[in-house]
Amino acid sequence: MLWPAATKKLVKAGPDREVAEVFPYRSACPASLWRSLITKAERELTFAGYTNYFLWLEQARFGTALRRKASAGCRVRFLVGDPDSDLTRAREQEEDVALALSTRIRVTLAELEKLRGHDVDARFSTGHAYLSVFRFDDDMIVTPLLTHSVGHDAPTLHLRRHQDDGMFDRFAVHVEELWTRGTPVWEGSDGQA
User: Fold this and answer.
1) d(C-alpha 10, C-alpha 117), whole Å
2) What's the rounded Cα separation, in Å, for the pair 55 and 35?
C-alpha cells in the first residue's frame, strides 16, 4: 500500500495530469518556455490574448518566427480585443495603468499588419477579455485575468493534452467558439493578415 500512494503522488493519473506547470504570475512563466513552445509547434499557433502585446516585447524576432511557421504550413491565428469597444474601455478603467489596453492592442495590430499576406489570421473577439489562451499544438498556456490586474499579474497554467475532453480540450473548444464568432481584423477579408 505504501508504494501505490507514493507513486500516485509522483505520477499524475487523473484529470490534473494535463497540468504541466503552474505559475503564480504570467511574468513568472519563463520567456524560454514560450520560445520553446513556439519553436516546437508544427500544426497550430493560436494567440487568444486580449492584447497579445507582451509577445512582441518578450520574444525576439517574433514576427519572423510567425512568418516562418506559417510558411511551413503551421496555422497561425490571433484573437485580439477591439481597441474601440465598450469592453476595452471598461477594462482600461479597471486596470488603471498608464499604457492603456487600447494602445497595447493597437501595437499588436500594427505588428500583425506587417504579417499581412503571410498566412497569419487575425480576428477581433470580445469573449475572452478575462481569459487568455495560447495554443502550441498539444501544449497550451492559459491565463485567467483577475479583476483590477493586468495580464502579467495573472496566475498561469501550462497545460499539455493527455486525454479527450480534458482541460486542454475544453479550453480549445472555447477558443474555437470565439474564433467562429470573431470578426476579421481587416475589412473585406476572412481575417487573414
Assistant:
1) 47
2) 10
C-alpha cell at 122: 487575425
Question: Would you say 116 and 109 are in contact if contact means Cβ atoms under 8 Å apart?
Answer: no
Mean pLDDT of the chain: 89
**pLDDT tens column, 165-184:** 999 999 999 999 999 999 99
> Which of 49, 45, 2 has its CA nearest to residue 145?
49
Q: Does residue 18 contact residue 162 with C-beta atoms inside 8 Å? A: yes
At residue 6 the predicted structure's pLDDT band, cuts being 50, 70 and 90, is low
Q: What gap in Å lies between CA 48 and CA 135, rounded to an integer?
A: 8
What is the phi/psi pair of residue 50, to 5°? -65, -35
Q: Which helix (H) or strand (E) holds 46?
A: strand 44-48
Contacts of residue 52, Cβ cutoff 8 Å, sequence gap at least 6 = 78, 80, 108
Q: What is the pTM for the complete model shown?
A: 0.89
State pLDDT tens for residues 35-62. 999 999 999 999 999 999 999 999 999 9
Q: Which of 41, 82, 32 is nearest to 59 (CA)?
A: 32
| The pairing of beta strand 131-136 with beta strand 139-144 | antiparallel
Q: Please give the Cα distance from 152 to 143 (Å, whole number).
A: 9
